[in-house]
Amino acid sequence: MQQQSHKRNLILASSSPYRKILLERLGIPFQVYAPDADETPINDEEATRLVARLAATKAGSVALQFPGAVTIGSDQVATFDDEIIGKPLTTAAAVRQLQLLSGRTVHFLTAVSVLCKDMGFEENFTVMTEVSFRELSTPEIQRYIEMDQPLDCAGSFKSEAAGIGLLTEMKSADPTAIVGLPLIDLSKSLRSAGFEVP
Q: Is the dihedral of CA 18, 61, 117, 109 positive or negative?
C-alpha cells in the first residue's frame, strides 16, 4: 500500500453504496460513516448552494468525530426547468419522472467537500453533468424501471447500468460525477491532503 495513505485515516461520510464503490477505485484504504445531516432545503435555496451546503455538512458532521482524519462528504441534486428533482422512491413516481424527462435535458450537480480539522484543510468543488434523454415510450420506461429499479436515483435512471440506453448524450468534465463522486477533482484534493493517488 502507499506509504502516504497511512499518515491519516480517510473517511467517506456517506451511506451511498455507489460512492463507496467509486472511492474504492482509487486504491486508498478508507472507512465509511453515515453522516448526521438534515438534507431539508432552505426556502428558496438554489440548487448549487443546496448541494454544496449538504456536501460540507456531511463532511463536517463526521469530521467533528474524527478531527485527525480526512473526511469526504458529497451530495447530488438533479434540476429540470430550474426545479430540483428528487428521488422517485416508488415505481409510479419513477414512471412519471421519466415521462416528464423524455426528450429533454436534465442537469446533475455533484458537490464534494474534503475536510481535515487538525490540518486546517478544506477543499470544496461542484461538477455539473448535462444529461439528454431520447424520446421514451411508456413500455420502454416500464421495462427499464423493472430492470434497473432506479427508485433511489434522482432522475430515475442509472447511467452505470441499463439507464445509459435511455440517453442521447451526456456531457461532463468527469464521467464519474453522474454516479455520485467526481474522482478526477477528488483525486486532486486527496493529493493536496497528502495521499498518493494512484
A: positive
Q: Which DSSP string do the residues of 70-122 spell out, in sequence order?
A: EEEEEEEEEEETTEEE----SHHHHHHHHHHHTT-EEEEEEEEEEEETTTTEE
Burial of 91 (0-12, 13-18, 19+ CB in 10 A): middle
Burial class (CB in 10 A: 0-12, 13-18, 19+), 190: buried
pLDDT, tens digit, for every residue of 13-57?
999 999 999 999 999 999 999 998 777 777 888 999 999 999 999
The beta strands (E) that lie in the chain are given as 10-13, 31-33, 70-80, 83-85, 105-116, 121-133, 167-172
List the catalytic residues.
75
Indicate left, alpha or beta for 140 from its phi (over 0: left) and psi (-120 to 50: alpha): alpha
Which cell is 34 given? 453515515
Identify the three-state secondary structure at position 195. Answer: coil
C-alpha 128/C-alpha 49 separation (Å) is: 13
* Contact predicate 36/54, CB 8 Å: no
| 3-class SS of residue 190 | helix
Q: What is the pTM for the complete model shown?
A: 0.89
Whether 190 contacts 70, CB under 8 Å = yes
